[in-house]
Amino acid sequence: MSRNKFVNPKHFELPGKFCRLPSEYGVVKICVSGAAETGHCGLDAFDKAREVGREIARQGAIITTGATTGFPLYAAGGAKDESGFSIGFSPASTEREHVETYRLPLDYSDVMVYTGFGYAGRDLLLVRSSDAIVIGCGRIGTLNEFAVAFEDRRPMGILEGSWDTDELLKHFIASAHRPNDRLIFDSDPKSLVEKLIEMVMKIKKENSLVYNNHDGWGGSGKKDEVIL
């Protein structure tokens, strides 16, 4: 006999507010990156992930994830607890491949983007579709998303916790010998999300060139100031 699954009624409510970027560039989108398998993360990983998601929704931002299990899934669930809006980026090319081949969930995603590019390609699209990144307890996939965001100079919040991911990242950042003033370390999800959104709003207001991909080239490859 199947049991009825309780679903939080807020998961079906429309978001109460959206945090709009300056000059009508849309709504702030915050990616949550973390381990799909969290056995090594410690007892507080799920609680921290859920609170990150809740705070993203409370601040009126959209949460983006890799449409996977573990830390990102709990963050997306936390966002839905506060009637937030969630976008998942799948490594699969179809819903069936997502569920049957990759064995990934559909839960908590209002919109699912089927990239068809596998995990590495999915990571690139996920990061570049987001205004800021929260890095939680993670493994190699999380480090890949961190590297993409670091190269793109995306605002990043590294969540400190009982895991060692934040300490590893401090070592990588020091070893990179590349100054980056868009990194925030904090153990409090509320404070971390607030600081990230504040940074995103400031950056977008001061320098929001649509074509700027931080590779040193403009839309035509000539360091343009405008696109015609």
From TrEMBL:
Transmembrane segments: none annotated. One of its GO terms (cellular component) is cytosol. It comes from the Bacteria. Pfam families: LDcluster4. PANTHER family: CYTOKININ RIBOSIDE 5'-MONOPHOSPHATE PHOSPHORIBOHYDROLASE, LYSINE DECARBOXYLASE-LIKE PROTEIN. This is Protein containing YHS domain protein. It comes from Candidatus Kaiserbacteria bacterium GW2011_GWA2_49_19. The lineage of its organism: Bacteria, Candidatus Kaiseribacteriota.
